[in-house]
Amino acid sequence: xxxxxxxxxxxxxxxxxxxxxxxxxxxxxxxxxxxxxxxxxxxxxxxxxxxxxxxxxxxxxxxxxxxxxxxxxxxxxxxxxxxxxxxxxxxxxxxxxxxxxxxxxxxxxxxxxxxxxxxxxxxxxxxxxxxxxxxxxxxxxxxxxxxxxxxxxxxxxxxxxxxxxxxxxxxxxxxxxxxxxxxxxxxxxxxxxxxxxxxxxxxxxxxxxxxxxxxxxxxxxxxxxxxxxxxxxxxxxxxxxxxxxxxxxxxxxxxxxxxxxxxxxxxxxxxxxxxxxxxxxxxxxxxxxxxxxxxxxxxxxxxxxxxxxxxxxxxxxxxxxxxxxxxxxxxxxxxxxxxxxxxxxxxxxxxxxxxxxxxxxxxxxxxxxxxxxxxxxxxxxxxxxxxxxxxxxxxxxxxxxxxxxxxxxxxxxxxxxxxxxxxxxxxxxxxxxxxxxxxxxxxxxxxxxxxxxxxxxxxxxxxxx
Length: 465
Fold this sequence. Notes:
Elements: H1 4-8, H2 32-49, H3 56-64, H4 67-82, E1 87-91, E2 94-98, H5 102-110, E3 116-117, H6 121-127, H7 143-154, H8 164-183, E4 188-189, H9 190-206, H10 214-227, H11 237-252, H12 259-263, H13 279-304, H14 309-320, H15 327-339, E5 345-350, E6 354-355, E7 360-361, E8 366-370, H16 371-375, H17 418-431, E9 435-438, E10 460-464
Parallel strand pairs: 2-8
Antiparallel strand pairs: 1-2, 3-5, 4-10, 5-8, 6-7, 9-10
Helix pairs in contact: 2-4, 8-9, 8-17, 9-13, 10-11, 11-13, 13-15, 13-17, 15-17
């Protein structure tokens, strides 16, 4: 990273700095060519592939263009030219700033929700399509209780969930059913995998009765496709009402040991008609998040079939370790989310004017954190392009403020521990006693120099015994 001396000798392109009197200076501006490069290399590829629901065709195109590596290169160059302060951008009349320093990521996430709110205009516009009362876009009055209820259900800070045995049973049921189906022929592709994973997700959220509730997932997919357009697309109120009604009914039937059962304190919150908690909206967010977990899980299979020494160690753990504690497999899941983030961009919107090193930003600025830029920063991370599950076991990953596959801080993902546990249990049940291998034309991933993009739609595996 540039030193302070080097940054001071850069051309000072009037950049939102305070003037000699201490008052805000004029906003720093990128050149026309720089703005065009940031739009085409960083912002448009993320929007094109779908922020809320991935689009297969655009995901294939973005992967083929190596867009994530181009984005990392573009942002690194902007940092070298303009320094570490957030880089101002004007996007369709919206004041935004690209975050370029890992330390600024720490500040934004730690100082949430005030003065950096997680429920900015874009996020509200997207999530309101299917969870208008979800915790991430709740107001200050309702957010604390909803956050507390989510934490009670998902148990962040506990590697093994209090209802881990129940979750493991649900994972085993769906994974073994999938393995049995594969014995009858065919490879494991994304469609087969996600069907089983979604069934497991509904089991974990509501109970075994929801395994066949495909309609709820179909409705959610339709709403999420609409949510890709955030506030520019009108909400389909009828579809949303049907989805939330079904989700609410499932919450009311939630079985002991399920996440929805814990959300309502084991039934002590009544029949689920809590006008403040809105349990159906919280459960809707979990179902949405489980889809990202499915992508992480499928890419984890690519890591487990790679040529890396970490793959062999994790597969040995699958075949030999009993119980619910699978540290190497959980670390593999986290590495999948680091190497190929499913949260493409984290946004925080300032509620008031904020001062940085030399920059001043007005209230309402959207601060954009591009995950892949920080996760693949080879100038800071020696393991940037390698599969190294050890970084999650020895504290190196947690010491890096720019690594945020599950976010952190007051608005961090409450499923930070539950999701790796659920995925690790599913993968163990699916792979134990079997020999997984890549079956698509790309072949196994190398030990180092991993691609910056990985199209999960194109992955295919064989599971021989």
